[in-house]
Design brief:
- This protein has a 6-stranded antiparallel beta sheet, with no helix packed on it. The chain has a 5-stranded antiparallel beta sheet with strand order 9-8-11-6-13, with no helix packed on it.
- 34% of the residues are buried.
- The N and C termini lie far apart (34 Å).
- The longest helix is centred in the first third of the chain and has 5 residues, at 35-39.
- The protein has helices at residues 35-39, 169-172, and strands at 4-8, 15-19, 22-24, 27-29, 49-55, 61-67, 75-81, 83-90, 101-107, 112-116, 120-126, 131-137, 146-148.
- It is built from 2 helices and 13 strands, in the order E-E-E-E-H-E-E-E-E-E-E-E-E-E-H.
- It has a single domain (4-20, 42-172), classed as Jelly Rolls (Sandwich).
- By secondary structure, it is mainly beta.
- 5% of the residues lie in helices and 40% in strands.
Length: 186
């Protein structure tokens, strides 16, 4: 019996993962990850790292983050408290959807996750106070391969649903896309 329903999204390789909730009078169980079941959706590596984020204020934006090869990573992003608007941007050189973005509402109520393939930038905006996310990563954090895009970049034209109330100095300093940016070659 599958514990996930996986849906292809408009950007090739990007998937919506809908978890099942199995419950009774005690509460419920919801599987966050299963290598066997998610392998069919494109997760072909072991989990190298699991990260947890807490975002205190509604309107806060985190991202847009990615790692260059050879440390490019697959991410499975789940919201376990509150609600976020989760964004993935296709940075794969030569992709027909290069520099296009897609967003999904992830929440503790809807049990939806986003499976983000290698070659994508990722970020989110908190739609509630006290949002908590879990990220499964296929590659460990490699500071020498870390990069990001400015979430306010007009070329991306991301339609953030709320005014940005918080944005870290690090994320504000991410570059705007220029002609020298050629994307990621995997």
């Amino acid at each position: 019996m599958s514990r996930f329903s996986v849906t292809d999204l408009p950007l090739a390789g990007l998937k919506r993962v809908q978890r099942q909730r199995l419950g009774d009078s005690r509460g419920f169980l919801s599987r966050l990850f299963c290598a066997e079941e998610l392998g069919a959706a494109g997760w072909h590596q072991p989990i190298a790292q699991i990260n947890y984020t807490y975002t205190a204020l509604r309107g806060t934006v985190r991202g847009l983050h990615f790692q260059h090869p050879p440390h490019a990573e697959i991410k499975l992003v789940s919201c376990v408290r509150g609600e976020v608007w989760d964004v993935a941007v296709d940075l794969r050189a030569g992709s027909p959807t290069y520099l296009q973005w897609h967003a999904e509402r992830l929440s503790s109520d809807n049990l939806t996750a986003l499976l983000i393939p290698q070659g994508f930038a990722h970020g989110f905006q908190s739609l509630s106070d006290d949002a908590e996310l879990l990220y499964c990563h296929s590659a460990a954090y490699a500071p020498q391969s870390e990069a990001g895009l400015n979430p306010r970049d007009a070329i991306l034209d991301i339609a953030w649903p709320l005014p940005m109330t918080e944005l870290s100095a690090r994320d504000q300093a991410h570059p705007w896309i220029s002609e020298s940016f050629k994307g990621i070659r995997l």
